[in-house]
Write a structure and sequence with these properties.
By secondary structure, the chain is mostly helical. Among the domains are: about 110 residues; about 150 residues, no CATH class. It is about 70% helix and about 5% strand. It contains 17 helices and 8 strands. The strands form 3 sheets. Strands 1-6-7 form a 3-stranded antiparallel beta sheet, with no helix packed on it. Strand 3 and strand 4 form a beta hairpin. The radius of gyration is 46 Å and the shape is elongated. InterPro entries: DUF641_pln (IPR006943), GIL1-like (IPR040225), GIL1_IRKI_C (IPR056813). Pfam families: DUF641, GIL1_IRKI_C. It comes from Ilex paraguariensis.
Amino acid sequence: MANRVSYFSDLIQRVTASCLLSGRHESGQVSAGDESEDEKYRSEDEDDEKEEEEEDGEEEEREEGFRVWEGTKEEARNERVTELEMLIGEVFEAVSAMKRAYVSLQEAHCPWDPDKMRVSDVTVVAELRRLGVLRERFRRSVGRECSGGGGRGTWRVGAATLREVVAPYEAAVEELKREVKSKEVEVENLREKLKTATSRNGSGKKGRSQSHHQSKRRVSCSSQAQVAVATSPAPELFEATMSLVKEASKSFTSLLLSLMRSAHWDITAAVRSIEAASYSTTATATSMTDSIVGSNHAKYALESYVNRKVFQGFDHETFYLDGSLSSLLNPDQYRRDCFTQYRDMKAMDPIELLGILPTCSFGKFCSNKYLSIVHQKMEESLFGDLDQRRQVLNGNHPRSEFYGEFLRLAKAVWLLHLLAFSLDPPPSHFEASKGAVFHPQYMESVVRINDGGRMVVGGGQVVGFPVSPGFKLGVNGCVIKARVYVVPRP
């Protein structure tokens, strides 16, 4: 700009000089010095014009080069945008496929479908690997761009976004790896137990009585339970599971009775109410109830009530929660499915399982039995509110100590039910009726009667009320005795 100003200033001087010279020429007074000065100005004018033309040419060349550079940059930008759009499209496609596979994996849990579960699991892992490949592609492309010096802030934002998308799936992969390791450890433990059980069976002595042999077989049944899980359903496994049911029933009943006493319940009246709701209200029933309470045996009446509720519908394949007839339409496949569910569920924590699948078949069973055992007034009296009941009615499962103890009983009964429908033929379920003559081959008394200073249980007693049901196994004819509370014959 300064060059332009000086140029105009010189031009004005030259024009002025030219006017003066022309005046001199007209008057005939132009000298040789003036002519030389005019020549000088003309040459300077010509030089300036040449410089201006050169500057204009250089500006045109710069503008043309800038246009070419802009065009190249625009093409590279468009190519980069197209590449990123394709990459993002593949990411969205992989995430959608991942979601579909995960939904299929969840659906395979309820109803239980091992084949579908395996296929869905393979698909989930494949989509996770695909997302990992896309992440590496993005990192490499960003590295090239960063080394070229362009768009650093943009690639950082894009990388952060992609990390947020992929992070949950990476966490899922790590969780699956941990589960695989835990399963491997469990397999090793089962192998050690198998070796131990095999060595014990080989070193057993045969010169023992029949009763001692049966006792030994019952004791070893619990140690061989894990082995039976890995092979096929067996009567010994059913017996061991029934023992777990008895233990869980006693534990839950003890907790319930403790809560009733803490809430200052009238235990005598409570037991009498339980008996009245289950049996005919006769004078005999009332006297038996009074004697039970007087002998501090209220826990057996309460356990009888709990078992009667939790075993109701045991003979049906779904406890009459629905009208399924799979065991009749395809019995062989149904038996295999039941045993597969038993093996998969045996090592699961019921609280964690229901936290993932609260409305599966087992979840519905737990909700139905809890509402049947713990009625509204009982819960309000024991806990002061109905919070647990509301959660169960809404399809959830409380994480309280009381509900956790109930879930252990519910899981034991559910596993026993799965085993019953895994055996061919299934076990026969029976229950001693009130007033029936005590039969030691099919019944087991929870108390002993004082007969003239002697604690005996024999043919002179009758069943006061059943405590837990019994089973007759059709595979080997073994009988799991029904537990009963006996009273003297009237």
